[in-house]
Amino acid sequence: MRGTVREMIDRGTYRKLPLFEGELPPGSYAQIVEVKPGQRVGKHYHLHQYELFCIIGGEARLGIGEVEYVAKPGDVFLVKPKTVHWVVNGSDEPFRLFVVKLNYRGDDSVWLEE
Amino acid sequence: MRGTVREMIDRGTYRKLPLFEGELPPGSYAQIVEVKPGQRVGKHYHLHQYELFCIIGGEARLGIGEVEYVAKPGDVFLVKPKTVHWVVNGSDEPFRLFVVKLNYRGDDSVWLEE
After folding, report:
1. B60 contacts B95 by C-beta, under 8 angstroms
2. Are the CB atoms for B52 and A1 separated by under 8 Å?
3. A13-63, pLDDT tens digit by residue?
4. Does B42 touch chain A (CB under 8 A)?
5. Where does residue A112 rank: exposed (0-12), middle (13-18), buried (19+ CB within 10 A)?
6. What ipTM goes with this model?
7. B27, B69, B76: residue with CB nearest A98
């Protein structure tokens, strides 16, 4: 089945759209995240979950641990548990990524900044 | 960490590159697949694994079950176990997708055509 973008959940600086709810095996989760133009997602980490990112639109600075990347469409990233990560979208376009969470047990985010 | 494309494994009509080996939790697997210009990946299904596809380059016909989609960069798809799927790349560009396998226990492909 195709993941169709319907109404997204607004979280202030970003929006998110869960995909394939009820269709994935236990411990996994999929969503599209869109960081709004000129906005950021603050530094945070997860206690248990792994995150795979596949960039699908726009361009932004993506920080993972000690490194800040310039993330562009087609780039793929892994964020392991307890690794701090953040996004800075300094452009005037939305920054969109497909996110797959593994070892997912519900929200386990620890925020270091808003 | 960033998933960097190094040498790909050639499978005739397509090439694949495993990513983040040894870094993902048990039961999951990630790779980039590139279907060569003018080539196809024949009909097959998997016994146990789920596949999430995020298209990152090119355009192709992607069949899943009873439906054939025109798949383009940014599109996201889910293939559930025992669902037949295939790719026809009728273009003169490579068709590239990021693939995440869930409930993965090793190769469990059943091929209906080459």
Report:
1. yes
2. no
3. 999 999 999 999 999 999 999 999 999 999 999 999 999 999 999 999 999
4. no
5. exposed
6. 0.94
7. B76
